[in-house]
Amino acid sequence: MQGEKQKVKSSPVLTSKPSTITNNIILVIASLYFLVDCVPKVEIIDQMGIHWLLIGLLNLVAGLFILRNNTFLTGIRPIFKNNITWLYLAFVTISGISICFALNKGESLIIYSRLLTVCITVFIFSILFYNRKELLKDLIVVITLIVLAQSFSGVMQFYAGLGKTELSTLVNSLQSTTGNKNIFAAALVIKIPLIIYCILKRQGFLKYLGLLTLFLAILTVFFINARSAYLGLLLSFLTIGGLIIYLQLKSKSIAQFKLNSLLMLGTYVLAFFISQNTLTKAKQLNQTTVYGTFADRLGTVVDTDNETTNIRLKYWKGALDIISQQPLTGVGYGNWKLYSPLYTGPLLNDNLFSKHPHNDFIEIAGESGILNSIIFLSIFICALLATIRMLRSKRDPELKLISIIILASLGGYFIDAFFNFPSERPNIQVLFAFILGVILTNYLAPAEANSESQKPVSKLFVIMPAILIGIATIYVHVVVFQSLKAQWLVDNDLNSIDNIPGAFPKLNYAQVSTILPEYPQIAENSEIMAFKKAKYLRAEKRYKAAIHLLDSVQYQSPYLPYSDYLKCNIYLETKQLDSAYKYGKRAAAIKPRNFYYFRMASYLARVNNDIAGVHKLFKTYHTYRNDQQSWSYYALTMFYSKANRAEVKKVVDSGLKYYPQDTIMLSYKPFLPK
User: Fold this and answer.
1) pLDDT at residue 136 above 60?
2) Which of 312, 313, 436, 536 is deepest in the core (most CB within 10 A)?
């Protein structure tokens, strides 16, 4: 980093010391970012809608605060004098340029507005905490208190359900306000190094409160059973332990180091043994669960025969095939979900769907090109190298400790980004913005504030554009929030009549068209919004209008089978069996593991007297799934078809070899040749 070239011992100093009032306001604003994660659940289809909106509003408040306080202007220029700032800006810029190549540019702009929100948050944190190490300590106390509340709630929830709730259900319910256990675990892993910093820098009550929080946080992570969180926890433990040992040996400050080390190691060990003992007993009561002890779960990471490990590897392979087709430009930022059915269709059963390849680096390469993924990866590499330089330098020991803590948190984020998709989740992105902001301002900024770096930056150059962009992102977040509220109403309305013959939804097409905004065009469950509207047209028997609507929006997400299956049902209801069969086969081809698509297409093959089609549909389905329900329906379809009875007998006999007790196939035996 440019700032590392100067050999000095002092940290940057400002020309004027910030006031207590200013520091208090900064602490309140920064704390609110982390409290977004604690907002009670609202009636929307995904809680991230309210989280993104609140982060956008906080960015506006923070931006106006910075705009009105000239003392911040001298802290902006140093931020732009290190490589990581420009790497991150290059990543954001290239992601934006990739929208030109997107199939659905509206969806790209919505997802890109979230990236811009994170980008603004990064620079807000970096500006607010420039030359404010003491304030950073206070913020980490706030973070520690938040983790204490979340972890205590998680541990109490787990023990309250132990022995009463099936283990898999209980583990999956440990979500806090995130809506997903893996997201909750990842957030805890990233925050744990910050708690350790609180333990190291505070004395008395706050130190022991930090130890209690650390214990509960580690205990919660073990109970959640997320393998990527286990890896992140292990990496952060080794990073902090190894580098602090190096730092303490170098400074020869052993006495205090031994005490802190014993306290924290004891906390880790205690949490580990209590959690493993509890999980071992719980697993004995739930023999079929996939969850278990630390060793059980971590062992599956390298076990390619494990179902979840195997599926992730297949995701990556399928994703790399798509990347190879557009390696330079990508498919457009935010558009990966449009292409994922091309490789997930043959991998996931029934209506299961995955919008992400479970690797942010692969997804970035797929959306905005391989070069942009390398740039994003370079941020982590540069942070590691800068930390090593920091530790070997004669800089302030406090900055060295901060660099170790932040590197450990960044390592936790890296592991999650390698195995999941934290870029989508606002609570994880607040943590990423905080980590990157601290990196930019506390130990990667120039080591000395010379006259050039002290020059204030014009408000019109940085702050005003950021505020204007922030206002634009808030507008997008408001529209998406309204859509998520409407999706919650519409999906619950449709689910209430699902598989109930003759039932009608409470809402009608006109009402749904009014409450669903024009954007986003793709719902949170990956359905096209028009598909939801078409369901209401079908319920109102406005079949032509439904078909016309589906045809007019097919370009918005062309590789999903939902529209084809709905068209199949509409044509079946209107007795247009040829058309129904056509779309039934198309849906089954896109999702060959979907039993319901297979069943519908097989039925239509029979009524259209396409015996060869029946065999072909089953052969395709059987390639991926060998289950009893498909053999039963295959036999039923053939039995009631015009196929030769000897041919039917062959199918029934083959099915009974796999499932000799199947009552449906056994019932056909008396009517078939001996």
Assistant:
1) yes
2) 436
> What per-residue confidence (pLDDT) applies to 447?
47
- The predicted model scores a pTM of 0.89
User: Residue holding tokens 């807000």?
Assistant: 124
- Residue 649 structure tokens: 């007998």
Residue 600 CA: distances (Å) to CA of 135, 458, 581, 614: 63, 65, 8, 11
Long-range pairs for 554-558: beta carbons < 8 A, 24 or more residues apart: 555/103, 555/104, 556/104, 556/107, 556/521, 556/522, 556/528, 556/530, 557/104, 557/337, 557/338, 557/521, 557/522, 557/526, 557/528, 558/103, 558/338
* Burial classification of residue 639, based on how many CB atoms lie within 10 Å of its CB (0-12 exposed, 13-18 middle, 19 or more buried): buried
Cα–Cα–Cα angle for 431, 433, 435, rounded to 5 degrees: 70
Instruction: Find out whether 289 and 168 touch, Cβ atoms under 8 Å.
Output: yes
Note whether 601 and 587 are within 8 A (CB): yes
Distances (CA, A) of 91 to 47, 52, 361, 369: 27, 20, 12, 10
Tell me whether the omega of the peptide bond preceding residue 670 falls within 30 degrees of 0, making it cis: no
Q: Do residues 376 and 417 make contact, with C-beta atoms less than 8 angstroms apart? A: no
Count CB neighbours of 122 within 10 A. Answer: 25
Length of the chain: 674
Average pLDDT (504-520) is 90
Contact indicator for 610, 581 with CB cutoff of 8 Å: yes
Q: Which residue is it, tokens 């979500």?
A: 175
Render 193-256 in DSSP notation, one character per residue.
Answer: HHHHHHHHH--THHHHHHHHHHHHHHHHHHHHT-HHHHHHHHHHHHHHHHHHHHHHHHHT-HHH
In this prediction, residue 8 carries a pLDDT of: 38
What is the amino acid identity at position 306? N
**Does the structure show a pLDDT above 70 at 364?**
yes
* Encoded tokens for 523: 């719902």
- Cα 141 from Cα 163, distance rounded (Å): 35
Q: Which helix (H) or strand (E) holds 269?
A: helix 254-285
Nearest Cα to Cα of residue 566 among 624, 527, 512, 525: 527
The SS3 call for residue 528 is strand
CB 399 within 8 A of CB 445: no
167: three-class secondary structure by DSSP: helix
* Of residues 130, 136, 121, the one with CA closest to residue 88: 121
- Name residue, tokens 């930056």: 457
Give backbone dihedrals phi and psi of 522, rounded to 5 degrees, phi first.
-115, 130
- pLDDT tens digits for 368-378? 999 999 999 99
Pinpoint the alpha helices (H) of 441-499. Answer: 463-495
Average pLDDT score, the chain? 87
- The values of phi and psi at residue 652, to 5°, are -65, -45
Q: What is the torsional sign of CA 381, 385, 391, 395?
A: negative
Question: What pLDDT is stored for residue 107 in this prediction?
Answer: 94
